[in-house]
Amino acid sequence: MNNFKLPVTYSGILADVPYPYVSTFGSGGKLENKIFLYSGGFSLSGFSNGTVWSNGIMSSSRIHDYTIGTVKDNIDSSYYKIYVLNSNGLPFNSSWYDWKHAVDMGADFYDGNNDGIYNPIDLNNNNQWDTNEDKPDIIGDVSAWCVFNDGKPNKDRNFTNVSPQGIEIKQTVFAYSPKTYPELANVIFIRYNIENKGTVSDILDSVYFSAWTDPDIGEDYFKDLIGCDTTINSGYSYKNQSDPLYGENPPTFITTLLQGPISYIPNITYVDNNQNNIFDLGIDTPLDTAKKYSGQLLGKKIFPGAKNQTPTSIIHYMKSHPGQGDPDDEGQLRNYLTGHNQKGERINVCDWNYGDVLNMNCEDVNPYFMYSGNPVTQEGWINTNAVDQRLMVNTGPFTLEKNIPIEIIIAYIVGKGTDALNSIAVAKEIAKDAIGFYNTNFSHIPVGIEDSKAKSIPTKFVLYQNYPNPFNPTTTIKYSIPTVVDANFASTTKLVVYDVLGREVTTLVNKQQKPGNYQVTFNASKLSSGVYYYQLKFGNTVKTKKMILLK
After folding, report:
1. Which residue did the predictor score with more confidence, 462 or 303?
2. What are the extents of the domains in the chain?
3. I want to staple 305 with a disulfide (CB 3.0 to 4.6 A). Which of 6, 65, 286, 530 is the partner?
4. Which CATH number is 454-549 given?
């Protein structure tokens, strides 16, 4: 498919897939047919009826609490499998009809004739798909969909006192061909649709999710190091030396949180005007807006008054380590999910045996984001204990209400540079492309703002969401002016900020600009908190977006 090889099972295991389920290129996530990922999966923890629970798919930690199929086992077991879709396949092929079984288990589809029923029929009899006809949820050039649930019996679990919670997960793994998007040739996306079916409790609260991985980069997997970069919502594993399998330039493996769980938080994501701790549209005042991106076929949805959680902690633990090793019970796993050590204590950066803080004050380092320093320049908190690592990119808390799914999207990214440390920079650039691609609802790779090469001149008129948002007091606004027939043509570009009543606050840009990528900083230090709008005009084209000043 692309440069990244990732075997999967229909019970949630990524990479660590045994024979005979995988035989073509063997178990493990691989680049150039060389391993860099032993196993991938996830973990969850929350409360139901006041009792803590934790579960997951973490094979190298002997945690495998999910089993194939739906929570309510009323489906023919032969339909519990991986459903593969190919964007280049002929319309109305067998995989389109087979998707009916996936829909019966909760899979999405494009409802072309708006009748609420999935029925992929060539209504126009033209051997082509038309927009009034049904279609599977095709995202990526190739996607693999399956469903599993946390119904494994207590006796078969590592944490035998934790019972099933009625959690059902629909997983989609998808990727793009290098011919379609060469920038994504080393990227695989994983989408988790997580639903509480209400068999134990209508509310599972204070839930945390972790994108869990056990990286094994090359032959010397016991010499892996861990780092994180909060600017790209990512944790990563790397080497600072050569490896017998990869040679002088072993790759860096990154896990990036693209779409976090949606949370409504009173007086943070909305003003709770009626003080009932519930967001009421039309009554409460939104301070933020969450999003759900489903690709060009199914489109996107927005949720005023909510936000997508970003990583709340990024941590590591180590194989068979007595103090920071595999979790022994649900409490220890929850401690890791909330960014603490195995005992539930906040990590003391200034007295931590597995890393050093270089060229800065250790008391200024955020303990919830492990090894956030720069390994290349040797600044900040650096992991110095090279061992067999496990990496957790955590986010939460959020609530799983009965029959209301939460969707989380992550990306697995691998980059290989000229040497071990250069691979970090290469992988991070790929991560930025993946983030940009997600932010366009999986439609295109945004052109880098500072890239002035001719090939980087944009082809679309784009006004990007300001960052950060909410902001205080400054934020950056980026936009792209597209290529026109005459490369020397310049039209007037006008970027104006308005308040919520439509009154002009300030004009940021008002001048002739040629095609290219631009950015401007907006300083709102003299303005009061609230919702503002920024509008971009170029010729006859107008784009408007909302931003939130929160002091």
Report:
1. 303
2. 1-87+138-261+309-445, 262-308, 454-549
3. 286
4. 2.60.40.1930
